[in-house]
């Protein structure tokens, strides 16, 4: 089911409820008939007994009164049943017409696109005009226009003699259908606004090339007008009173005036531009693939509606007792276009032929025909093994750390040398914590992202379309498996390091291995694996590149979503830089194995590095907001930029709070308080679209259970104030002496922020999905390239 078109599907639940209400009334009517039969039997028995007793007493009028009351109730129920049946068939007709209007509008847009696509292929010389003729799409468009004029047949006849359905109801129904059709056309224009800049540039280039061709072929313009008079756009101009596009009648007239040189233009362009650049070829192929995917979605849309309609008709026959299904199928459904999908099948077949001849790729379109994504059961088993192994290693690591800490506290240096236990300095332990925190945060974010994708799949959120990613290359199984594997590798390296620091009896030689070897192995393996994954699936690298070039590139949802993720794992970037400098500086210093590793000197510079990397992700989002405000003209983006400006100031204040504690801490508290209130309010009102008063402080459309939203709001606001733990660390002197404990608490605060981001993702993507549903956006609008 295409969730973005949910409102255009047949309202199966509503029709079933109406049938159930008819069934309830019929049951009541049957019970009343049984009661009347019982009363009649009792009265007949009494009359027979009275005759036997030769009773001459007059019969009381109570029986006649009860009979008249029962007859009135019986008539009332019969009238209600007739009214409910008429309401059911009225709603049935409305749904049939709604589906048919949506189907015809979509197919007309498809005809326009494939007409333009064919012209582009001809202009670039990718297809042979002798094998593919443009005129074969014209009858489809003509049939759709004629069908819209004629309309479809209805179960209930809306005429002057129908007393049950008034003319006012008919006008309201027609008005609602016209509003729905106009809303569809407007949303198509809104859906295409994502590429409006590229489309405008392409149109400008196309118009320039067309003017040049007109000037060269001015003498033959009258002949070319006759040749181009049979195109689809001219047919659209002839039926302009019925079908109008969103571009307006003036633009349509202008396009018709130039229609005469349309074919001649492309014949001339074909001779001059016989070669096509790789970028334009890829754009043509991508547009064709997206168009083909839209056709398959429409085919699935029609199939599901047909199945639902047949089920409704079967149920109505069973409840009402009249066999109307075959009659309605033959007379009503046969008059619609979506039932047999003749035109849609022709478009699918012609698109496959055009794609194969133009790009010589036979199997590329087959990937869109796979509706369900099968996941190998072995992947679930592998996740279970990895998760169990991670828990086991974490337990062993905790036991080993406690044993190591106890041995150091209870023994002196001479005994430690006897036991072959190597004691780490405080700076070395802090360095290990920083290197571990980097990959722990990144792994947790991947696990949360995998859980989010599983939730999206359960509630039918089309996240591959929202993020412009390929579903088969990356799904929730990959994300969860990758995150758990990274945590398992990190904890395993830490456990091996602890074994070398405190080796068991008989393995004292392990004490000669430097402790930093295992963090180095962890860093190298995870970095190499990430690079290999991005070589295969470069979605993350492409999005990060777009984030870095935010002022010069148009901002899409995936761009600012990824930048928001980066703001939550900003410690990862500073810690990863610390890992690199830690090993480089350590190797350069060349100190012996018994002394402190030279890389720990970089801890003195972290108080300067951390604020810089804490401000870089908010700075990217700050620039993205200005670019979005420039492209869309939405002034709310400037208010969003103010939120990230406060975050930048907050990062700077948090970095220098340890230098001037008594001066900067009040400023730090003020900035954090403003940031938490500002960001939390923006999360709920703008990012999630909640707190709408007329929708019970939620929003018009929600995909989750209603009780989840208040809990999510409370959790998000609470976790936004996780920075208050830092205030305790600053004012309690005990933490100044125990820097290791303080650093562990900072790690916990970072984990809280990543957890909050995982919750935020669930509702932010849901809100984007509801926006797509309102705009009927299920495919991307990709402008076709034009010859230079």
Automatic annotation (TrEMBL):
Intracellular or extracellular location(s): Membrane
UniProt entry tagged with the keyword Transmembrane: yes
Membrane topology (UniProt): Multi-pass membrane protein
Assigned keywords, A-Z: Membrane, Receptor, Transmembrane, Transmembrane helix
Positions of the UniProt region annotated as Disordered: 45-68, 207-260
GO molecular function term, any single one: inositol hexakisphosphate binding
Ranges of residues in domain SPX: 1-330
InterPro entries: EXS_C, SPX_dom
Transmembrane parts of this sequence: 383-405, 438-456, 476-501, 513-532, 568-588, 608-629, 641-660, 666-686, 707-734
Listed GO CC annotations: Golgi apparatus; plasma membrane
Domain EXS: residue ranges: 601-788
GO annotation (BP), single: cellular response to phosphate starvation
UniProt cross-references to Pfam families, sorted A to Z: EXS, SPX
Source domain of life: Eukaryota
Entry's family note: Belongs to the SYG1 (TC 2.A.94) family.
Full protein name: Xenotropic and polytropic murine leukemia virus receptor xpr1, putative
Organism: Entamoeba dispar (strain ATCC PRA-260 / SAW760)
């Amino acid at each position: 089911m295409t969730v973005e078109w949910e409102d255009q599907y047949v309202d199966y639940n509503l029709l079933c409820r109406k049938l159930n209400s008819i069934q309830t009334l019929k049951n009541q009517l049957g019970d009343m008939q049984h009661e009347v039969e019982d009363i009649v039997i009792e009265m007949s028995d009494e009359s027979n007994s009275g005759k036997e007793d030769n009773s001459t007493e007059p019969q009381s009028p109570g029986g006649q009164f009860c009979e008249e009351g029962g007859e009135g109730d019986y008539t009332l129920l019969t009238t209600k049943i007739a009214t409910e049946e008429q309401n059911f068939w009225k709603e049935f007709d409305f749904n049939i017409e709604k589906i048919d209007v949506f189907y015809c509008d979509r197919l007309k847009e498809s005809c326009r696109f494939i007409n333009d696509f064919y012209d582009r292929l001809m202009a670039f010389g990718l297809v042979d005009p002798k094998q593919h003729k443009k005129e074969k799409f014209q009858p489809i468009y003509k049939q759709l226009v004629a069908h819209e004029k004629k309309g479809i047949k209805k179960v209930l006849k809306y005429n002057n003699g129908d007393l049950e359905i008034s003319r006012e109801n008919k006008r309201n129904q027609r008005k609602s259908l016209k509003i729905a059709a106009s809303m569809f056309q407007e949303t198509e224009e809104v859906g295409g606004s994502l590429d409006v800049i590229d489309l405008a540039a392409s149109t400008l280039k196309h118009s320039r090339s067309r003017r040049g061709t007109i000037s060269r072929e001015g003498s033959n313009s009258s002949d070319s007008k006759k040749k181009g008079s049979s195109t689809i756009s001219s047919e659209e101009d002839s039926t302009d009173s019925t079908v109008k596009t969103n571009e307006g009648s003036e633009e349509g007239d202008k396009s018709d005036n130039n229609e005469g040189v349309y074919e001649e233009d492309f014949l001339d362009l074909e001779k001059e531009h016989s070669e096509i650049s790789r970028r334009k070829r890829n754009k043509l192929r991508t547009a064709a693939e997206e168009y083909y995917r839209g056709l398959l979605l429409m085919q699935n849309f029609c199939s599901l509606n047909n199945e639902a309609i047949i089920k409704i008709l079967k149920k109505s026959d069973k409840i009402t007792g009249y066999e109307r299904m075959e009659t309605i199928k033959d007379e009503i459904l046969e008059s619609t276009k979506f039932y047999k999908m003749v035109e849609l099948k022709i478009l699918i077949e012609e698109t496959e032929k055009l794609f194969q001849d133009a790009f010589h790729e036979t199997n590329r379109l087959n990937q869109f025909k796979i509706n369900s994504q099968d996941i190998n059961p072995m992947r679930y088993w592998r996740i279970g093994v990895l998760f169990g192994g991670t828990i086991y290693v974490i337990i062993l690591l905790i036991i080993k750390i406690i044993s190591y800490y106890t041995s150091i506290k209870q023994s002196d240096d001479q005994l430690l040398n006897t036991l072959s236990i190597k004691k780490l300095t405080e700076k070395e332990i802090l360095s290990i914590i920083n290197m571990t925190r980097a990959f722990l945060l990144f792994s947790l974010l991947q696990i949360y992202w995998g859980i989010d994708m599983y939730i999206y799949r359960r509630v039918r959120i089309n996240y591959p379309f929202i993020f412009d990613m390929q579903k088969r290359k990356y799904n929730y199984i990959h994300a969860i498996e990758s995150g758990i594997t990274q945590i398992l590798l990190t904890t395993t390296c830490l456990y091996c390091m602890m074994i070398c620091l405190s080796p068991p009896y008989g393995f004292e030689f392990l004490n000669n291995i430097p402790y930093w070897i295992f963090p180095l192995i962890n860093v190298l393996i995870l970095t190499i694996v990430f690079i290999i994954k991005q070589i295969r699936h470069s979605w993350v690298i492409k999005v990060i590149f777009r984030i870095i070039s935010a002022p010069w590139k148009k901002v899409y949802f995936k761009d600012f979503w990824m930048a928001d993720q980066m703001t939550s794992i900003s410690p990862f970037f500073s810690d990863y830089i610390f890992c690199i400098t830690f090993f480089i500086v350590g190797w350069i210093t060349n100190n012996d194995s018994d002394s402190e590793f030279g890389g720990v000197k970089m801890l003195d510079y972290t108080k300067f590095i951390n604020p810089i990397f804490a401000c870089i992700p908010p700075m990217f989002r700050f620039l993205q907001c200005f670019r979005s405000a420039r492209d869309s003209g939405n002034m709310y983006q400037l208010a969003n930029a103010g939120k990230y400006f406060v975050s930048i100031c907050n990062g700077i204040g948090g970095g220098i709070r340890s230098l001037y504690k008594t001066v900067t801490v009040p400023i730090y508290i003020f900035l954090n308080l403003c940031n938490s209130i500002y960001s939390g309010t923006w999360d709920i009102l703008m990012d999630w679209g909640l707190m709408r008063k007329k929708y019970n402080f939620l929003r018009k459309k929600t995909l989750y259970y209603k009780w989840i939203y208040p809990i999510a709001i409370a959790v998000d606001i609470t976790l936004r104030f996780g920075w208050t733990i830092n205030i305790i660390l600053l004012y309690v002197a005990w933490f100044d002496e125990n820097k290791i404990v303080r650093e562990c608490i900072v790690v916990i605060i970072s984990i809280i922020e990543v957890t909050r981001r995982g919750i935020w993702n669930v509702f932010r993507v849901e809100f984007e999905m509801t926006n797509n549903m309102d705009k009927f956006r299920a495919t991307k609008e990709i402008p076709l390239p034009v010859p230079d």
